[in-house]
Each structure stands twice: as structure tokens, then as C-alpha cells.
């Protein structure tokens, strides 16, 4: 069994502070998460005791650093149920991972006239790289529609995915609508038509158990900083055969086997992609974050977020003038809630909440096509994680009601 729920918050020193004289209520976890002591101490311990560059030194510190870095590759493989540690490429984050798939796999496998199928839910980092590729090779983009309550429309997916489809690229969980996409069903459609399934797991891996093989993913990308690890580290997982076919994109130290004056042989996967000095401490911190999450258990984390959403959603739904985007049934949602209060710009709402110590995001959430689809330019977004509590939810509701009273009912 995992740790007791009410212990988790105490592991995050940053949460103990006051903001604007109010206790901090951190609800911007879809943007980035806070770091537990275990991660902070691991990074510090690495720099205090083992810091050296990896792979290239025979001295003891270099060996220790290399061992600590490479251990995380196996840890990631086990965490997402990959087959083999060679399938795990360390990147800066989801954005870099998806860009690499588009610019390397895409540029060598997608031809003029091929189709790339995305959805209206996509974050710009799973959209712009495909636009760029489509322009470069003359491919066509198609977008899977959403149902009336903001879920992926599987019928639309079935209609759009055809023998012309080369790539289907979808988020596993939306960073705006709080929905989890039926990746397994879509990857079956993709594979039936010979297409490759690319999954943006940035909002899924931190919150639910992920099994890349069960999902039928060919590529799966995620970011460490959204799952308690430091910024600047992420993962591209890919099927070995596909990674082997991909040319590297960054050339330099570390990724080469032999360099002549006119020709170079590259190392094997994953090293051929990891040119230059890597974010060694970040990767080691990611390992500590995975250990922390696994000690609690991803099922426990999903359950905790589900309890919070079931508690907060009906109360938000009861606020007159508050529109909540995505499914209204809490069981269909992750811990992300996007909303707008009629008559108040989401930036003003977020600033008002900040005055009460409540940190939420306002904006287009790097999903402008989705904003257009919803007919808004921006929303406010509260996103919960394992260290959030019902008290946080109560303070969010109170802050929204205060803002409504102040701005809209003229009590100023
Ligand atoms: N995809 C989704 C669904 C996201 O929420 C984010 C981060 N907001 C990204 C991709 C990009 O992640 P990063 O900025 O860590 O590369």
C-alpha cells in the first residue's frame, strides 16, 4: 500500500508558504508541478557527491554519474511498461520529443498526399510540428471532431483515418478539457490502416497508470516537470524498429561512433539522439520523481484526483454564470477544470484569485484551435494534483465567489 494521503502535502516545502497573506493554494499543476523533498534532495546529492559528465570518463565520479543516469532509463521503461531500455530517449520535454518525431520520423516517412490526423484537443506542441511537416512534404492535416461534451468523437476518428493516413497524433489527456482519450481504440484504427500512432502523454503520465504497449502507441512523449521532476527533462519513448529508422537531428559529441573528415557513423539508439552534454541532474531527478510516484501508486493518485473533482465540480456547476468546459460528469475527467465566468475576463479572474493566494492559469493554454472550436479566446484553468486537498477546493470556490461578488455584483 502507498503512503497515507494526508502525508503527501508535507513532502512539498513550497506549499507551506503564504501568498498575498493567504495560504498558497497551488492549482496550476497542468503547467508545472511542485517538487517533493525526495526529488530536491536527490538532485542536491548528485551535485554534492557524484557530479561528472557521463559516458566519457573512466574516473570514479564519471562512472557513478553514468550509472545513476542510465538507471533512470530502465526506471522509465518499467514505469510506462516499455519493452527495452533502448526505447527511452531523454529529451528536454514533450515539445522536443514531438518535434523530433515530426522532423525525423515524419520527414523520412511521410510523403506528398499522405494525411496526418490530429484532434481539436491538441496542444500546440502536438500540432505546429505536424503543420511544419505537412508544409514541407506536401501532406494534409485532418482534425478529429469532438462530441458535444468535449470528448474525442470516435466515429469522426473512424471516418478520418484511412489508408491515406500516415500518422495519427493525439494527446492522451487534454490540458484544457480534462478528458482522457481512448488511445487504444484509435491506435487500433491507425494500425488497421498502416498508420503510426503518436501520443502526447504530457497530461497523462503524471496522473494515471500508463502502459505504452497496451495503448498501442508507436511513439509516446512526456515531460518530467509535470510529474514532480525538474524542468528541462522529458522522454521520447518509441518502438525500437521505428527509432532505428530515424536519423538523428542534433550532431556533435556523445552521439557518434566514429568521425572521419567527411563521414560519421552514429551510435546506436538511444544514444544517437542524445548529442552533447545532457541534463544529467534532471534525468536523475526524474528517477527520484518516478520512485516517489510509484511509492504512492498511480492508481491512488488517479483516485485522489477523482475524489477532488467529484467534490469540486458540482459546487462549481452551481455557480451562476460559471461555464465549465468539457464533460460535466466528474467520472469522465482528470484533475483539470477549465472555466469562464460570464462578464469577467479570465485574466482578471486569475488575478483576483491570486489575491486570495489561489494560483490558477488563464489564457489559451497553447491550444488556440481548441479555443476557437469552443468559441472563446481564453479560459481560466484550475488543475489539481496529488498534494491538493478538499480545503484547496473550498478556497478555490470561495475565491471565485468573492471575485464574482467584487467584479460583477458591484460590492466594490
Ligand atoms: N502537451 C500537453 C498536453 C501539455 O499540456 C504540454 C504542457 N503544457 C505540452 C504538450 C508541452 O510540454 P513541455 O512544455 O513540457 O514541452
TrEMBL record:
Cofactor: pyridoxal 5'-phosphate
Domain Aminotransferase class V: from-to ranges: 25-396
Signal peptide: none
UniProt-listed Enzyme Commission number(s): 2.8.1.7
Highest rank taxon of the organism: Bacteria
Reactions it catalyzes: (sulfur carrier)-H + L-cysteine = (sulfur carrier)-SH + L-alanine
Keywords carried by this UniProt record: Pyridoxal phosphate, Transferase
Entry-linked Pfam families: Aminotran_5 (PF00266)
Family: Belongs to the class-V pyridoxal-phosphate-dependent aminotransferase family. Csd subfamily.
Protein name, entry field: cysteine desulfurase
Annotated organism of origin: Ligilactobacillus pabuli
Lineage: Bacteria, Bacillati, Bacillota, Bacilli, Lactobacillales
Amino acid at each position: 500500500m502507498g503512503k497515507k494521503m494526508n502525508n503527501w502535502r508535507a513532502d512539498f516545502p513550497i506549499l507551506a508558504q503564504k501568498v498575498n497573506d493567504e495560504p498558497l493554494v497551488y492549482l496550476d499543476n497542468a503547467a508545472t508541478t511542485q517538487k517533493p523533498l525526495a526529488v530536491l534532495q536527490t538532485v542536491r546529492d548528485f551535485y554534492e557527491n557524484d557530479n561528472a559528465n557521463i559516458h566519457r570518463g573512466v574516473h570514479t565520479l564519471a562512472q557513478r554519474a553514468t550509472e545513476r543516469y542510465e538507471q533512470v532509463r530502465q526506471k522509465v521503461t518499467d514505469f510506462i511498461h516499455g519493452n527495452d531500455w533502448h526505447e527511452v530517449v531523454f529529451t528536454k520535454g514533450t515539445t522536443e520529443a514531438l518535434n523530433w518525431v515530426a522532423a525525423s520520423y515524419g520527414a523520412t516517412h511521410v510523403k506528398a498526399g499522405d494525411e496526418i490526423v490530429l484532434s481539436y484537443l491538441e496542444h500546440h506542441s502536438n500540432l505546429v510540428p505536424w503543420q511544419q511537416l505537412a508544409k514541407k512534404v506536401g501532406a494534409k492535416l485532418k482534425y478529429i471532431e469532438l462530441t458535444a461534451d468535449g470528448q474525442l468523437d470516435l466515429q469522426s476518428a473512424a471516418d478520418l483515418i484511412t489508408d491515406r493516413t500516415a500518422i495519427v497524433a493525439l494527446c492522451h489527456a487534454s490540458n484544457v478539457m480534462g478528458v482522457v482519450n481512448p488511445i487504444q481504440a484509435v491506435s487500433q484504427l491507425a494500425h488497421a490502416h498502416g498508420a503510426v500512432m503518436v501520443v502526447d502523454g504530457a497530461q497523462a503520465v503524471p496522473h494515471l497508470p500508463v502502459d505504452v504497449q497496451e495503448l498501442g502507441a508507436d511513439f509516446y512523449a512526456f515531460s518530467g516537470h509535470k510529474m514532480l521532476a525538474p524542468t528541462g527533462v522529458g522522454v521520447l519513448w518509441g518502438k525500437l524498429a521505428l527509432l532505428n529508422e530515424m536519423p538523428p537531428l542534433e550532431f556533435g559529441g556523445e552521439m557518434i561512433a566514429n568521425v572521419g573528415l567527411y563521414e560519421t557513423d552514429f551510435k546506436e539508439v538511444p544514444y544517437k539522439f542524445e548529442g552533447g552534454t545532457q541534463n544529467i541532474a534532471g534525468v536523475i531527478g526524474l528517477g527520484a520523481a518516478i520512485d516517489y510516484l510509484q511509492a504512492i501508486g498511480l492508481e491512488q493518485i488517479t483516485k485522489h484526483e477523482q475524489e477532488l473533482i467529484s467534490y469540486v465540480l458540482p459546487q462549481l456547476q452551481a455557480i451562476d454564470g460559471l461555464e465549465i468546459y468539457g464533460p460535466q460528469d466528474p467520472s469522465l475527467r482528470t484533475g483539470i477544470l477549465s472555466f469562464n465566468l460570464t462578464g469577467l475576463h479570465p485574466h482578471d479572474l486569475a488575478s483576483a484569485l491570486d489575491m486570495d493566494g489561489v494560483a490558477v492559469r488563464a489564457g489559451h493554454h497553447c491550444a488556440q484551435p481548441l479555443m476557437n472550436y469552443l468559441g472563446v479566446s481564453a479560459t481560466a484553468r484550475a488543475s489539481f494534483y496529488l498534494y491538493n486537498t478538499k480545503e484547496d477546493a473550498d478556497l478555490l470556490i470561495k475565491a471565485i465567489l468573492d471575485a464574482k461578488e467584487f467584479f460583477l455584483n458591484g460590492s466594490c
